[in-house]
Amino acid sequence: MDAHRPAEAPAAPQLRDRSDIDDRFKWNLTHIFPDWSAWQGAYDELETQIGAYAALQGTLAEGPDRLLAAMKLSDDIGQLTYKVWYFASLKYDEDQRDNQINARRQQVQILFAKASQASAWFNPELLEVPLPTVQAWMAANADLAVYRFALEDLYRQQEHVLDDKGEHLLSLSSRFSSSPYDAYAALSTADIRHPSLKLSAGPEVTLTYGQYRAILSTNRNQRDREAAFTAYHRLFDTSVNTYASLYNGVLQRDWFHAQARGYRTTLDAALHGNNIPPAVVENLIDTTKAGTEPLRRYHRLRKRVLGLETYHTYDTAIPLVDFDRKYPYDDVLDWLPASVAPLGRDYQRQLREVLFGDWIDVYENPGKRSGAYSAPVYGVHPYMLLNYNDTLDAVFTLAHEMGHSMHTLLSNAHQPFVYSAYTIFVAEVPSTLSEALFLEHMLEQATDDRERIVLLQHAIDGIVGTFYTQVLFADYELQAHRLVEEGRPVTAEALGAIYFNLMQAYHGDALDYDDLARLTWARIPHFYSTPYYVYQYATCFASSAQLMRQLTTGSATDRAAAIDRYLTLLKAGGSDHPMPLLERAGVDLSKPETVRAVVNQLDSLVTKLEQAIQTLEPPSAVRERKKQ
Ligand SMILES: [Zn+2]
Fold first, then answer.
1. What pLDDT sits at residue 3?
2. What is the pLDDT of residues 153-191, one digit of tens each?
3. Parallel, antiparallel, or unpaired: how do β-strands 196-197 and 205-206 relate?
4. Cα 193 to Cα 186, 201, 208, 234, 518, distances in angstroms
5. Which pairing describes strands 360-361 and 381-385: parallel, antiparallel, or unpaired?
6. For residue 433, how far is its CA from the centre of ligand 1 (angstroms)?
7. Residue 555 CA to chain centroid, in angstroms?
8. Rg of the chain's alpha carbons, rounded to an integer?
């Protein structure tokens, strides 16, 4: 769940064979199964259970015992599925060159397809039983009452389910509804011809997306960055009408489905699953747009520190100072527990268990999966995959994934299986909060002004990237969908105008605008693959900022109450819809003040950055290079 993180990680310092890495830096998967034969035994059992579930078809109406039996068997299958899947999948990620393990992993995927066929009867059959009947059953049967939220939610969703004929028609449309994205992916990846680019120094480079990002974040020559920006965006400019046409396909599909299912708007349709009121997205957009002053202040500061006469989108990623401290993993093992002190001793103790339990696969090795994740292996414990390379990014990635792991640990310990998983709407709250606590700790520890600047810039860039940019994206998606809802034409020009107006609304005169930036919308994969998704990064960020304020300010009693509410949120897993869960933790996303917590957080970080920069001696320390 880290789509906001750059896909390309910096290269590891030295690549060792897996067998040369000390066991304490590798996860121990025997906590799941002792060996492959135990795994095979569980696999066979799972297959038997799936067959037994299919055989329950036609029994639900007979009464509460039958329904309970189906729910329990479904839980058993789910729990075993976690272990069977993750044992194969985590093994595979240790070395993806292993074909035998890959075959086993695919074997599980085939079984999943069987399982979903074997359970397809459940929802329609249940919904034939009137809800009051099921409610009466639950009132009389405590074991069945455990499933109240899950069952009632199925009835809630029923409101927009069509009759058999309608559902059949809609299911036929699923075959082509992914075509706009597939064509976008082909056009922007498979069929794209990356240009080569001659920079001011070094050999000619092929301008892939990874290379483009690398130039923007490391090349201190503004002309090189400009050349990379121009060449990269021309790639999209040459096919911009095709991109607009594909995106129109996405918008028309969403509007078709919303209307077919009786939703008022595409936004209503997208939010209904998690029962989120559309006012949450509107509040997010309006309050953020009204809170762009700290963002502009940051850009003006960057322009001055970097010594630039003009300041463009391609100047926003370059570091303010050069600083290459290494952060050995063993040091972080002390810092991370210290950073969560505001969450109390129990939390600290459990976090140490995660760190020292052989649950984490720390270093890169040949064939290992790239990136980082936390895997919620229900019935065992969370595992974490890292590619730790001693950089500051790697440290914060560990803090981030640790937030997910603690969430899993607490949710699994306190919820029945059916509610142990949590939605993305809540998932990124503990991960970002964990990063924020870690930043506070690192800032307190930092003795070097340059390090303070690097830390502050890391935190600010996080807010810009996961909050401001995602809200701007959400605003764009909303306005673009409204074009089709209002029957207006969708052209490259119309989409470019929406995007450009938003850029100006956010950055005002803090940015110098390039015409090619208009077509940024054309290259964002999320717009084609998962519309109305990215706003959740921003709502999580706002929730986390609000919680951070409650956890670290006010009287000791207030803070203790805030810790209690926060831990209750983590323990609650997926036992309710996200809005009530967050409300109980003290976060109301329909209120402007929640969103303003991020604006205030950014404002205070920019002020700290200004102070840190003032203490550095200009201009030798802050390495600036005017036009070359
Ligand atoms: Zn995450």
1. 36
2. 999 998 898 887 888 888 888 778 889 999 999 999 889
3. antiparallel
4. 12, 23, 9, 11, 21
5. parallel
6. 11
7. 33
8. 26
Check residue 564 and report its DSSP letter: H
> What is the pTM for the complete model shown?
0.90
Query: Ion ligand 1 — residues with CB under 5 Å?
Result: 1-2, 431
Q: Using the 8-state DSSP alphabet, how is residue 379 labeled?
A: T
610 CA from centroid of ligand 1 (Å)? 29
381-385 and 373-377 strand pairing: antiparallel
Give the span between the Cα atoms of 251 and 531, in whole angstroms: 9
Burial class for 374, CB neighbours closer than 10 Å (0-12, 13-18, 19+): buried
Q: What is the 3-state secondary structure (H, E, C) of 32-85?
A: CCCCHHHHHHHHHHHHHHHHHHHCCCCCHHHCHHHHHHHHHHHHHHHHHHHHHH
**DSSP letters spanning 489-546:** ---HHHHHHHHHHHHHHHHGGGS---GGGGGGGGG-HHHHHSTT-THHHHHHHHHHHH
Distances (CA, A) of 109 to 81, 103, 115: 10, 10, 10
CA–CA distance, 208 with 212 (Å, rounded to integer)? 6
Whole-number Å distance between alpha carbons of 467 and 294: 13
Measure 68 CA to ligand 1 centroid, in angstroms: 34
Element (H, E) at 377: strand 373-377
